[in-house]
Amino acid sequence: MKRLSICGLAALGLLLSAAQPASAHAVYVRSSPAADARLLRPPAEVQISWSEPIDARFSEIQVLDAAGKRVAVGKTTAGSDGETLVATLPPIGDGGYTVSWRVLSSVDGHETRGSYAFALGDAPLPELIIAGDSGGRAPTALELAGRWLGFAGIALVLGGGFFTLLIAARTTVTRIGFDRLIRFGAIALAVSALVLFVDQIASQARGDVVGTVTGLLASRQGGLFGLRLLAAGLAWELARRSRLAPRVRTGGLIVAGATAAVAAMLASHAAAAGEPVGMLVDLAHLAGVSAWAGTLPYLLVAALGRGRGTAEVRGAMVWRFSLVALGAIAVIVITGSVAAFTRLSLIWDLIETPYGLALSLKIVLLLVALMLGALNLFVHGPRLRAGDNSARGPLKRTVRIEIGLVALILVAAAFLTALVPPAQPAAAGLYQVQRIEGTRIELRTASSLPGRNRFEVRVSEGLRPLENVEKVLLRFEMMIMDMGQSELVATQRGPGVFVAEGTPTSMFGPWRAQVIVRPSGRADVRALFVINVAAPEGTAATTRIVSAPPYNVIVFTDPSQVVAGAPFRLSLVVVDATGVAVNDATLRGRVQGPETLELAETRAAAGRFLIEVAGLTAGRYRVELDLDRVGTRTGVSFDLEVGR
Amino acid sequence: MIRIMASVLVVVALSVALARPGAAHEERQLGKYTVEAGWYVEPALEGILNAVFFEVKETAGGREVEGLEATVKVEVTYGGERKVFSPALRVVGGTPGAYVADMIPTKAGDYTFRFTGKIEDLTIDEKFESGPGRFASIEEATDLQFPAKADGAAELTAAQQELRDGLGRLQLIAALAAALAVVAIGLGVFALRKAPRS
Question: Strands, DSSP E only, in A463-542?
């Protein structure tokens, strides 16, 4: 037995030390061609990067033309950073194309899907059925069943340990029933591990089942699978060896239950997001559930079942259970509230998102179970303690009902752990949510840097995307200096999804972004967001700060990657020593390199200088500009790379 | 009450007398004419008497086009709403070629002016929508209100809205947790009092 305990503790220690932080779900970060890009020349490959390492064996990229026909992409290979996939393309003609992808996170084992479009030549962008990230596939019945069995197994095994440690320490417990419950817990853990593994195989196998199985076993998911089986085996062994010293058995059950709980926690949203506090909160939540819900079946068997024990003895056990349950409920409520606060964006998420609905159901069921518990605490329990054996019957009935409610609570918990929480960090840039007059508006930006940016607006009411939207506008204003107001009109890219691209946020600092949604036949819905355009740590490839004392000049090109022959625009924001954008100046100069081009004199508009260039041949250039202001001239120079 | 009415009348009179076309108008070429549209009073604030401004000149030569109050109609819509308001155009005294249609925009936001009819021989059906680079949107009047802001007129900044939403979440969850904690403590105290003395 000591050996079993040591093995269990060792496995636990190994797993905790090996846990790696990661982001929540593998979310699209960037791609080449970029989303909604308009290209002059056909790309040789499609390259997509996500927010965390992905398992290339179970991930794929598909490219479809405007007619929906698949383009024969080459083999998909992983990038060196583990977060990128590359698929080579055959020569393609002008037209609109959809890139759709499906990836399996090698960290949390969740699958995410998404799509984006690009166009070659003048063709229109195809409309997307799933725009951006879909947030993962809907949970299958198999996955939900596996999660439910896992939670039930943890509760029974860990609950058995808590029961003997805290409730029945000095009491003779009906062994047969007790051992049977531990066996049920062990079986539930084992079946849960198998069911979840089979579900992963079913979702990932594309004809090659053996390859999928070996691939999954070699991955992190395989490690968690093994840990669950280890916990199940330990619990089964403890159930079999009923003559073990009580202290050893209790310790073994707690280790087995904790091992299974850690395996569940390592596959949770908090673990995938790399939140140590969130992980501890999840563990504490599981412990609380096990101490209350997990000990209920043991109470039914030991205190209220057949066997020895006077009414007073049984009543005393019920009384100790009530005390433990009160503490456990307090832990459940506190940890549940902390988790809810971090995973909900708005309080309305409780009724307007699938995750929120599952959480609301869990809360309601918990409240009903608590009311039954109060009945036992105030009515039936005192009667039993006073020696009234007739209280056993009603007490047994309410405990059975409580167990039934707990089973339903675990169903809600299975949904909660399978669904994506509403509050999900953006892989890059900004993610904010507002709710205005019943309309939920989400704003996501691809980058937090000045320069060209992609603004994605998702609009929904209740659980459905908002339909019949005439227009979505985004208006930008710099908050700490007057740079005028600019507007982007978003185009619809999918149900309730609107995307706009442009360079309105051209300066570091806070920008006010007003999103105006115009539903047909209704008043506009307006939401205000603050976008903090932050100074880059390390140099951003597309935006740079050029020092030209007494000025600093923020420079970027639009598009961010300049290619030979294609027109582009130079955007310059000149900031004086006090940090204010300069408007009363002119800029003129030239571009020197493989060819020389004179740049026309340009005046600032809305705090920004825009210089249009018709096109340059490929090569490295030096841009030399003269900034004339209030009778003084300052030189501004920087390099410019024009790709082939 | 009389004092308030008198104040309103003074404001109205001053607004009409002193108002002139503002800089935030949209200009458009329609055939041989240059058409300018926007709000007559600027800054254009909600709840303050204003007017749809419409001016037509020949592009070459600058001749003001008169008599359009009889041949051009204007329809005003707010945001995406289908409700249409059709104030009558009248001549701006002393400014040939300029016309206004009086109205009070009661909500901040974007308005659309649709002009239909005829400019001399040219049939028109033109929409002008407020926004950056076009004519000004109606702004909330809170910045100018003194001493107290009118109810419901305060525009929250994005940061304030986010703070409000987060605070709302926190308050509700904290209230729920506190309520349950109080119940649990109450149960515990009651149970302790009822504990057997063995």
Answer: 464-465, 469-478, 485-494, 497-502, 509-519, 525-533
- ∠ CA A159-A162-A163 to the nearest 5 degrees? 85
Residue of chain B whose alpha carbon sits nearest to that of A363: B176
Alpha-carbon distance of A467 to A460, in angstroms, equals: 8
CB contact (8 A) between residue A315 and residue B196: yes
CA distance A29 to A31: 7
Position A444 pLDDT exceeds 70: yes
Q: Residue A15 corresponds to which tokens in the numbers above?
A: 């797993």
Q: What tokens appear for A316 in the block?
A: 């005393």
* Distance spanning both ends of chain A, measured CA to CA: 69
Give the Cα separation of A305 and A396 in Å (integer).
8
Task: Give the pLDDT of residue A171.
Answer: 58
Q: Least CB-CB distance to A340: which of B155, B165, B173? A: B173
Q: Measure CA A48 to chain center.
A: 18
- Please give the residue of chain A at the shortest CA–CA distance from B176: A337
pLDDT in tens, A379-399: 888 888 888 888 888 888 999
Please count the CA atoms within 13 angstroms of the CA of A192 that sit on its side-chain side. 29
pTM exceeding 0.80 = no
Residue type, A349: D
**Quick one: closest CA in B to A513, which residue?**
B158
* Bridge-based pairing state of the strands A60-65 and A70-71: antiparallel
In DSSP terms, which residues pair with A311 in a beta bridge? none
- Nearest alpha-carbon partner for A423 in A350, A500, A503: A350
Distance CA A64, CA A71 (A): 6
The full 3-state SS of A148-199, as one line of letters, equals: HHHHHHHHHHHHHHHHHHHHCCCCCCCHHHHHHHHHHHHHHHHHHHHHHHHH
* Burial class (CB within 10 angstroms; exposed 0-12, middle 13-18, buried 19+) of B77: middle
Residue type, A382: P
- Chain A hits for B78, CB-CB cut-off 8 Å, are 523-524
Confirm if A83 and A49 have CB atoms less than 8 A apart: yes
d(CA B68, CA B191): 87
Contact A574, A553 (CB under 8 A): yes
- CB-side exposure of A85: number of CA atoms within 13 Å? 28
On whether any CB of chain A is under 8 Å from the CB of B184, the answer is yes
Least Cα distance to A322 among B186, B191, B196 occurs for B191
Is B161 close to A528, i.e. CB distance below 8 A?
A: yes
State CA A129 to chain mean position distance: 21
Cβ-contact A506, A516 below 8 angstroms: no
Has the ipTM of the complex gone over 0.85?
no
Examine the pLDDT at A21 and tell me if it is beyond 60.
no
> How many CB atoms are closer than 10 A to CB A209?
12
Is 60 exceeded by the pLDDT of residue A425?
no
- Identify which of A341, A484, A516 has the shortest CB distance to residue B173: A341
List, as ranges, residues 13-42 from B with C-beta within 8 Å of A. Answer: none
Residues 6+ positions from B54 with CB-CB distance below 8 Å: B35, B36, B37, B68, B72, B74, B89, B98, B99, B100, B101, B113, B115
Q: Do residues A381 and A322 make contact, with C-beta atoms less than 8 angstroms apart?
A: yes
Interface test with A, best of B26, B77, B110, B135 (most A CBs within 10 A): B110
Supply B28's token pair: 């458009």
- Selected for mutation to probe chain B from A524, A525, A532, A608 (highest B CB count within 10 Å) is A524
Instruction: State both tokens at B36.
Output: 């300018």
**pLDDT tens digits, one per residue of A295-317:** 999 988 887 777 666 777 788 88
Q: Tokens 């459905």: give the residue.
A: A464
DSSP A139: P
Nearest CA in chain A to B159: A530
* Chain A residue numbers touching B110 (CB-CB < 8 A): 516, 524
